[in-house]
Every structure is written in structure tokens, then in C-alpha cells.
Specification:
Structural class: mainly alpha
InterPro entries: DUF6594
Number of strands: 4
Shape: flat
Strand content: 5-15%
Helix content: 40-55%
Order of helices and strands: EEHHHHEEHHH
Pfam family, one: DUF6594
Number of domains: 3
Protein name: DUF6594 domain-containing protein
Organism: Didymella glomerata
Length: about 200
């Protein structure tokens, strides 16, 4: 006597003792299963996980969702902003030093970018101007400024609406207000401790 039970991947035949070797696999190997699923799933040939998800997103862009990592992007921009401020201060110091230097063409850097851009030229194995500190700093700042300016986090907020001068003025106003508030708070605390 033979009893058949259907499962989702195969048909299993259970044998009684009197009939041996009567199994008939329907989908025992993966190739048969894929061929059966292929007409129903247009992405059957993509591996489940990121490959299949990417295939679906490519076919239907409206279902694609990605995290913005807004807080991490903002933190990164704040670090970059701080680094740029420090580099800007350092650049001012080097510019003052180089404008007073008698070495090579350093005194001309502030008026002629060609001299600054060619500061790495060597004569007889020696740098023309003795060092390339200002040039190296400018190149480092250029890379950081490009990354900072091209950030998707900052671009929507500064898209032609606010200039650097306005931002600087707003920051100065905020700092002034904060300073005045702290002075008032300090005065209030002193008055509370030492009433007149």
C-alpha cells in the first residue's frame, strides 16, 4: 500500500513494507523549483537579500527607501566646520609670516596665486621658497571645502538663500545675545546673593 503526502517542495511517497523503492520526487532539486517559480517572480534569478531588493528597487524606484543618517551627517559637518575654522586661522598666521619673509617668492603669494601654486618647484634639489606650508594648507582646505559644500545635508539649507556674510552676522548676533544673557543671569545671581 502506498500513501502520498504533498509538501510545498516535494511529493513524498510513503511505502508500506510490501512495496519498496516507489518514491517520486517532484521538486527535489533546486533547479526544478526555480523553474516553477520563475514565471511568478521576475527577480527569480537574483539572490535573496540585497541583490533581490536592489532589483525590485531598480524596477520600481518609488519603493526605494534609504536612511539619511541626518544626525551623523550633521555631526560630520560640525566636525568639518570646526576643522575648516582651525585651518582658516592657521592659514592667516602662515599668510602673515610669508608676507614678511624674504625667502623665495613667499612675499608674493598674497598677490599672485601663480607663485603660491608653484611653491613646490625645486632648484638644485631645494624648494624655491624653502617650504610649501601655505600651499599644502590651501590644498587641504580645498578638499575639505568641496566635501563640506557638496554635502546633501547642508546644500538644501544654503541653496542660494543665505550667504556666508549673513550666516556670519547671524552667528555673531547669537553669540552677542548669549553673552548678554549670561551677563544678565550672572548679575541676577549676584543680586540674589547680595541684596542691596
Amino acid at each position: 500500500m502506498v500513501t502520498q503526502t504533498a509538501t510545498c517542495a516535494s511529493t513524498i511517497t510513503t511505502e508500506s513494507d510490501d512495496t519498496k523503492d516507489k518514491t517520486t520526487p517532484a521538486f527535489n532539486d533546486l533547479a526544478h523549483a526555480e523553474k516553477a517559480v520563475a514565471p511568478m517572480d521576475p527577480f527569480y534569478d537574483l539572490v535573496a537579500g540585497y541583490p533581490k531588493l536592489a532589483g525590485r528597487m531598480g524596477a520600481m524606484p518609488e519603493i526605494a527607501m534609504f536612511r539619511r543618517f541626518g544626525a551623523l551627517n550633521a555631526r560630520n559637518l560640525l566636525y568639518m566646520q570646526n576643522e575648516l575654522a582651525v585651518l582658516g586661522k592657521k592659514l592667516k598666521q602662515i599668510e602673515v609670516e610669508d608676507s614678511k619673509s624674504m625667502e623665495g617668492k613667499k612675499r608674493s603669494y598674497c598677490r599672485n596665486a601663480v607663485w603660491l601654486n608653484t611653491a613646490n618647484i625645486k632648484f638644485d634639489g631645494q624648494l624655491r621658497d624653502g617650504d610649501t606650508k601655505q600651499r599644502d594648507l590651501v590644498l587641504k582646505m580645498r578638499v575639505l571645502l568641496n566635501q563640506y559644500s557638496e554635502s546633501d545635508t547642508i546644500r538644501p539649507h544654503t541653496h542660494g538663500l543665505v550667504t556666508d556674510e549673513h550666516v556670519d552676522n547671524a552667528l555673531i548676533q547669537q553669540a552677542t545675545i548669549l553673552r548678554e544673557t549670561l551677563k544678565l543671569h550672572e548679575q541676577f545671581m549676584l543680586d540674589a546673593v547680595n541684596p542691596r
